[in-house]
Amino acid sequence: MKKYLALAFVALLIGSLGGFASVSAEDFPRSETIYTANSAPPTSANPFQGGNIIGIDGLVFEPLFMLNFMTTELKPWLAEEGKWVDSTTFEVKLREGTKWQDGQPLTAEDVKFSFEYYERLGLKKIEGLKEIKVVDDRTVQFIFSGQPNIWVWRSNLYTTLIIPKHVFENLDPEKVKTMTFTGDEQKYLVGSGAYKLKEVVQQQKSILERNDDWWGVKYFPKPAAKYIIQLYISSNDQAANAFLKGDLDVATYYLDIESLKNQNPDIVSWLDRPPYFPPVVPVVLYFNTQREPMNMPAFRRAIAMAINPEQIVQQGPISDVPDQTPLGPIMQGWKDKIGAKDLIKEYGWEYGNLQKASEILDQLGIKDTDGDGIREYNGKPLELHFVTCAGCSDWIQTGEIIANQLKPLGIKVVIDKGDWTNFFMHKLNTGDFDLALHWAGTFKADPYSVYHSLMYYHNETDKGAANFGNYHNEQVNELLQKLSATPNEDEQIQYLKELTKIWLQDVPAVPIYTGTVFYEANTKYWKNWPNEKNPYGVPIFWPGFGTWGTALALLGVQPAQGPTSTSSPSGSPTTTTSGGGSTCGPAVLVGLALIPLVLYRRKR
Amino acid sequence: MGFKKYLAQKTTVYLITFVFAVTLNWLLPRLMPGNPIEAMIESNLNLAPGEKEILIKFYEDLYGLNEPLWRQFVNFWVRLFHGDLGYSLLYKAPVSDLIRNALPYDIVLLLPAIALSWLVGNWLGAMAGKNRRYDRYMMPLFYFLASMPYFWFAMLLVYFIGVELGWLPYQGAYDPSLVPSLSWEFIKSFIEHWILPFLSLFVVMIGSWAIGMRNMIIYELEADYVRYLEALGASEKLMTKHAYRNAILPQVTGLALQLGLMVAGAIATEIVFNYPGVGVLLMNAALSQDYFLLQGAFLMVVISVLAANFIIDIVYAFIDPRVRSSYTEG
């Protein structure tokens, strides 16, 4: 009986092995393969919505322009150039020689088809776009009926992937919405890019293979890696182990770079000083500007002055010190043009100046009348509620530091925590808070979008996506309106200057610290990862950021060694061994269980 | 005749249970507060002004979540009978594909772990129940094993055997540079990666099986029928045999339930070893309110638990003469 059981088990084991997709084993030479990873498994290669494979956007399918999010500049990609020929017509000229991976030429017809396809899917609605006109094989005109919002249009240039008309015109958009483009459907994944999707091992890894017939080699350097493999690593600990052992080349995980660097000097990030991670945009402290006394700009200014970001950066979350504008380090180019430094000097405040902050509150008549250390407003002690989400440990930490910094000013801050959707976002969206932190308004690819999302307000429903404090200023609305209509850079700078000035004077929100994205790369097999000094690509290795510049980064890396020396002796000392050792663990355990039995039998 | 009636009765009960359980599985995630689509869009960082509203409408249409609840319920049953489990909100892929691709890993891991630990645990437990001296030092060990959290033991294995000693690979189901296939290289790599997660489950499970068995054996050895046998001068072997047959019954039920729950995966083990299984899928689905994956996965759980129970009901008729007589006589 037992024999049969054992046999059955062995049979089951072997049988279930056979249950896996039977694909022939393949070798991916380590020196020709970039390993990256994501915390969600690869399940869908859908280029339109929710694909979770890095590089489907940007490496397989390409946009007209690539965005480099770290500099917020556009890089002409499939397009040679694009410009407003008059106030309602945007003309795009394609590069010479663009072609699809199946050999067909990529023409203006494909561009027109792609933009229309996104609208048919319901994924885009380009306001005011009247007609897409194919002028010739390489020229397309986008004709708007009224005055278009040039910044919204700018975002369409890098978020719209150009797809092959000859493949997709036969595909029903309704079906495409839920296709995964893996398995049998992979044949529709004909892009124009430097890589092809080779295979998706469902829920475990995806493999991109270089397209050696890429049109782009005429204009850009030839991509170095033959394969890009995306693994599924769900926890930070596992990612750290994989980096230490050199099994992972680049990824976006929350790891302790300093201690990783000590153990493995090959590991790099954006900066070579703390915080190491790339500082991107400021996290801002919102005021509910429809509540007293936060409706007074002077009061908001006093709080801004009492806050000390240096202390927050030292004791709080991984971050860098912000300036006073909501435009992050990624917009340094814009900030130089509008002279942000001078504006801050002239109209800004001074962080950490408690003395001055107290004076302002005294002048406003908000004083501590009963001597308990807390100022009274309208006869009641001034107590502000800082709302945050219970899982957001970095924000809770920051909130506690802010509470400590405002205490000497005579303001009590109470921290309220709850879950993200039903407590925190609900409170923000309904205006039921005094203070709150968020980055949603600053994580944008252009300064217009930052100011629009933070300061635009028409009414309760028509307002900036991140104007949680309901800041309202008609002058801002007008400036945004003008800014949205002009492609002229001098005028843009003028309007941005004025918006920045209003921001500094009115303090709708206070930049508290510059948030970072996570980024770590290993230089053992691949070098020239983008960093602060060479920001040619974006260090965000998440799906969906391909055309935001992840593709640029993956195309820009170079092999660390010549192709001949594949095995490097300088590797980490612990490598996985098999054979003799592998049976030890179970043998010891079985042995331990058997010893008492053996003894017991003998004694009887 | 009796057996047929017994079967029919059982089938009806199971069908009703099935409908009820599946309805609950459909309803409960939807009663959770919050809107998964808004949460999904809000976590999307790279949106242009005005894009949010377009996307919310797109996804509500796509998943039919803007329809009244009763309509969604009807759609759900209609699709279910067409074999369509829906399309995952979180993973953007058909639920049936997701489960089909993850389940083999769980079965390969959990089936041997549950079955072998059941055999070994019962054997050790029976041994402990019969022999006091052995019992005295084995029981603390059993309690220690049974109370040990899976993830804790798994982390110990990862750290000591995987990372420090480097004897065995510590993460994944096979080497990152391989693709599943029927080659020796893959099978070897797979088995190497399988050992640690298997051990982490197997060792911990032994404890609870052994405790259950030991207690049952002690109880049965004190029972009147054993005393009677003893008085008749029966051999110890015969008494043990009778006691064992009775003691094993609850253990069989336990085994069936464990095997039924197998399709829910082993969440802790999968997380620690980064093993691709249903457990992590399910956990993430619950966290992000992925209605479709949740109801699909729980459907599998309901079916397999019911199936396991059904089989046990039938098996009981063979291994327990009391059950057999109750329906043949009734």
Would you kindly provide a written description of the structure presented here, covering whatever features stand out?
The complex is a heterodimer of chains A (604) and B (330). Chain A is an alpha+beta fold and 604 residues long. Chain A folds into 2 domains: 30-272 and 519-559, D-Maltodextrin-Binding Protein, domain 2 (3-Layer(aba) Sandwich), CATH 3.40.190; 279-516, Dipeptide-binding Protein, Domain 3 (Dipeptide-binding Protein, domain 3). Helix content of chain A is 33%, strand content 19%. In chain A, strands 16-22-15-21-19-20 form a 6-stranded mixed beta sheet. In chain A, strands 1-12-11-10 form a 4-stranded mixed beta sheet, with no helix packed on it. Mean pLDDT of chain A is 87; it is low at 15-25, 564-591 and 596-604. Chain B folds into 2 domains: 1-94, no CATH class; 102-320, MetI-like (MetI-like fold, Orthogonal Bundle). In chain B, 78% of the residues lie in helices and 0% in strands. Chain B contains 14 helices and no strands. Chain B is globular.
Topology:
The complex is a heterodimer of chains A (604) and B (330).
Chain A: H1 2-18, E1 33-38, E2 62-63, E3 65-68, E4 73-76, E5 79-86, E6 89-94, H2 108-121, E7 129-136, E8 139-144, H3 150-159, E9 161-162, H4 165-168, H5 173-176, E10 195-201, E11 205-210, E12 227-232, H6 236-244, E13 250-251, H7 257-263, E14 267-268, E15 279-287, H8 297-306, H9 309-315, E16 319-320, H10 332-338, H11 340-347, H12 354-364, E17 376-377, E18 380-381, E19 383-389, H13 393-406, E20 412-418, H14 420-430, E21 435-438, H15 447-455, H16 474-485, H17 489-506, E22 509-516, E23 520-522, E24 526-527, H18 550-556, E25 558-559, H19 584-603
Chain B: H1 2-31, H2 36-42, H3 51-63, H4 69-81, H5 95-130, H6 132-147, H7 150-164, H8 184-221, H9 224-232, H10 236-260, H11 267-273, H12 278-287, H13 291-319, H14 321-329
Helix pairs in contact in B: 1-13, 2-3, 5-6, 5-8, 5-10, 5-13, 6-8, 7-8, 7-11, 8-10, 10-13, 11-12, 12-13, 13-14
